[in-house]
Design a protein that fits this description.
The protein has 10 helices and 8 strands. It is of the alpha+beta class.
Length: about 290
C-alpha cells in the first residue's frame, strides 16, 4: 500500500515538474495526463483532489508567479514580453488579469509592489506545492567543515509580509555593487522563527559574500561574517521558498539522533540557484546547521 501511494505521488510530482519546465508551452489535459500516465478522463479530478486546485488554475498561478518575479526582481524584460511569456495575447489582457489578482497594474507593481495581496494570491499555489514535499532521512545530511565567509548584510526586521520589499532593495544594491550571484554567494541567516508569535519579532539577514570594501549607496548595509566550523548540511532541490520543513527535520529528527550539539549561531542557507532564472523545481539551496 505504501509503495503504491509513493508511486502515485511520484507521478503527480512529475506533472508539477513538467509544468514548471514547460510554462511557455500548451499545457492541455491530454498531454499532462500522459505525463502522469493516468486516464485523461479522470486526471483533472485526481489533480484537483490531490492539490486542491484545478490543472488550469495551477498553470495560471505558476505563470503569474513567474511574471510577478520578473517584474519585481528583474529589469531586463519589458511588460509586453512578460505578458507574452505568461500566455496572454495582449499586454492589456495581462494587465487586467494582473490587476484583478493583485490590485495593481504590472507597471505599478514593478515600481512599488504591494506584497500582502501577492502573498494571499499565491497561498493556494504554495499549499499545492507543499502537498508532495520531499521527505528527508539521515542519508541526505552531510557534515562539512566550512570556511569563515565575510559578508555584506542587509537586515530585515519586522513583518515577514514586507520581506519582498527588502529583497528588492537587496537585489538593487548588490546589482549596483557588482556582486552578481554567479560570483558572490548568497546567504540567508534566520534569527527568528518563520512565523513568530508577533510578526514584529521576525528577523532575518540577507547576505552576500564579498571581500570588497562595502559601499552602502544609501542603504543600511553592514559588514559581518558567517563563522566557519562544522555544520550539518542538507540540500533542498525544488520549491525553496519555504525551507521550514527542512529546518524542522534537522532540529527535530536529525540532531537528537546524531549525538551532535548545535553551535551558538543561527541556522542559515546558501541559495545556489534562483527562480525564475531556472524552473522552480530546479532551484537549489543548502541548509546549514552549525555544530560544536
Amino acid at each position: 500500500m505504501k509503495a503504491a501511494l509513493q508511486n502515485y505521488q511520484d507521478r503527480m510530482r512529475r506533472v508539477l515538474d513538467h509544468i514548471d519546465r514547460h510554462l511557455d508551452d500548451d499545457l492541455d489535459l491530454d498531454g499532462l495526463s500522459a505525463v502522469a500516465a493516468f486516464s485523461k478522463f479522470h486526471f483533472h479530478r485526481q489533480f484537483t483532489a490531490t492539490f486542491g486546485l484545478s490543472v488550469h488554475r495551477y498553470v495560471q498561478l505558476a505563470r503569474m508567479k513567474r511574471a510577478s518575479h520578473q517584474l519585481a526582481y528583474g529589469n531586463a524584460q519589458s511588460v509586453t514580453d512578460i505578458a507574452m511569456d505568461a500566455g496572454y495575447d495582449t499586454p492589456d489582457a495581462f494587465a487586467r488579469a494582473f490587476r484583478q489578482r493583485f490590485g495593481q497594474s504590472p507597471s505599478s507593481f514593478r515600481k512599488s509592489p504591494d506584497w500582502e495581496p501577492w502573498l494571499a494570491a499565491f497561498g493556494p499555489l504554495d499549499i499545492a506545492r507543499n502537498k508532495l514535499m520531499k521527505t528527508f532521512n539521515s542519508d541526505d545530511v552531510t557534515i562539512r567543515d566550512v570556511p569563515t565567509t565575510r559578508v555584506a548584510i542587509m537586515e530585515h526586521r519586522g513583518d515577514p509580509a514586507t520581506l519582498g520589499a527588502t529583497i528588492q532593495r537587496f537585489i538593487a544594491w548588490r546589482r549596483a555593487a557588482g556582486l552578481h550571484p554567479r560570483t558572490s554567494p548568497t546567504f540567508n541567516v534566520w534569527r527568528s522563527e518563520r512565523r513568530p508569535a508577533s510578526s514584529a519579532d521576525y528577523s532575518t539577514d540577507l547576505c552576500v559574500g564579498t571581500d570588497q570594501p562595502i559601499e552602502a549607496n544609501g542603504e543600511e548595509i553592514k559588514a559581518g561574517e558567517i563563522p566557519g566550523g562544522r555544520c550539518a548540511v542538507l540540500r533542498i532541490v525544488g520549491y525553496t521558498d519555504n525551507l521550514e520543513p527542512a529546518a524542522l527535520y534537522l532540529y527535530r529528527d536529525w540532531l537528537p539522533a546524531s549525538g551532535e550539539e548545535a553551535r551558538d549561531f543561527p541556522i542559515y542557507c546558501q541559495r545556489l540557484s534562483f527562480f525564475p532564472e531556472v524552473p522552480e523545481h530546479e532551484t537549489v539551496a543548502d541548509l546549514f546547521l552549525p555544530l560544536k
